[in-house]
């Protein structure tokens, strides 16, 4: 069953007719599981549709505890066990209805792979995308320039990984509180921000783009970092770091003409979304898959082929796939101390906060900025510039400098032992290899 059977021809009228006659069917069941809401989605198969379904669940901040994926010709079926952020079943009828309508709508079968669910260009804000080399104080400098140019940051997300940084920043005109439309002003914004990014020998890789919104922020950040090749190794990895990194294995099963991917990592919200973003962007089709979580550990397994119908067929491709999946998991992985700041929103607020962090010797590893109802809720993952854990005295100093702002330290969860379900690797691998002769697969990276 090659990927040629996957419906993916935007101009194919027959394919459009099939999709119209067979809209997605969604069943939401709160009785099938004792501890999760079960969501089953049946739909016409199309490259990227699995990611689009998961994106709807992710945007609602739902936790996927288990998932089963299976495709058969032009049709596929997904089953997700989900909970809210507190581990409870979904009881809110408004949310359940939203899930039903969103997954059954045509928005989940989008013609463009680079598009996102329910995202349309906005005239409410201007979107600025930045990629470049990470360094201390980078976000502070970006925010200072935007403040000087009378641009108000209403929402932003910043990721750093492997010496690279990417950001999607939504700004408005400080006076009109709407998108910036003046071409000359936009040109000035682009020029000054690009100057900040082009400070080192890797400046040729610096990129920036200004648009009227219309992109899904997290989806776009994955694409930006992937395009920036953040998955390429930089320096040697310490032994301790190796043990904490995600474990990725890619095997061949020639008798079934699949490549098999197995991933083990620390569990966290949006992990499934992050993995599928990279597989989709690398043009791989997931034909079958299983996701299981337990005791803070996640196990994912996928049967895949490239969109051209072939499994992974070279060592170089295999190695790159492993690197890219590791990067996809690590970009959002907890690194450093997480701080949440809540205060009244005002012009220049983000510039002041990031300056205070920089002056106290902190590096921002990841940031999520949002404003709603006149309130700013900003979350930062920070570490000292040396990479060491943040000293408590520095937090006290920041609290004194931020005054009336509410600064909360989010404690990182303590590591726990893997559950029996996810740690019994031999049993899982044995089931995985049924139907594949021993000589038909190659284990590239084994579990520790």
Based on the model shown, name its key terms.
eight-stranded antiparallel β-sheet; globular; 448 residues; 13 helices; disordered N terminus; disordered C terminus; alpha+beta; 16 strands
Radius of gyration, whole Å: 23 Å
Order of helices and strands: HEEHEEHEHEEHEHHEEHEEHEHEEHEHH
The biggest sheet amounts to: 8 strands, antiparallel
Q: Which blocks of ≥5 consecutive residues have pLDDT under 50?
A: 1-11, 109-120, 412-433, 437-448
- Basic shape: globular
Structural class: alpha+beta
The overall strand count is 16
Beta-strand proportion: 25-35%
The number of helical runs is 13
Give the mean pLDDT. 84
* Estimated helix fraction: 25-40%
Structure description:
The chain has 448 residues and is of the alpha+beta class. Helices cover 30% and strands 31% of the residues. It is built from 13 helices and 16 strands. The chain has helices spanning 13-21, 49-59, 93-104, 138-148, 183-197, 217-227, 239-244, 271-281, 315-330, 349-359, 392-402, 420-423, 425-432, and strands at 25-29, 37-44, 63-72, 75-83, 126-133, 151-161, 164-173, 207-211, 247-253, 258-266, 284-294, 297-306, 337-344, 362-372, 375-384, 406-410. The strands form two sheets. An eight-stranded antiparallel sheet has the order 1-2-4-3-11-12-10-9, covered by helices on one side. The chain has an eight-stranded antiparallel sheet with strand order 8-5-7-6-14-15-13-16. Helix 2 (49-59) runs antiparallel to helix 8 (271-281), helix 4 packs antiparallel against helix 5 (183-197) and helix 4 (138-148) packs antiparallel against helix 10. The model is unreliable at 1-11, 109-120, 412-433 and 437-448 (pLDDT under 50). Residues 38-115, 127-208, 338-414 form the ACT domain. InterPro entries: ACR1-12, ACT-like_dom_sf, ACT_dom. One of its GO terms (molecular function) is amino acid binding. This is ACT domain-containing protein ACR. Binds amino acids.
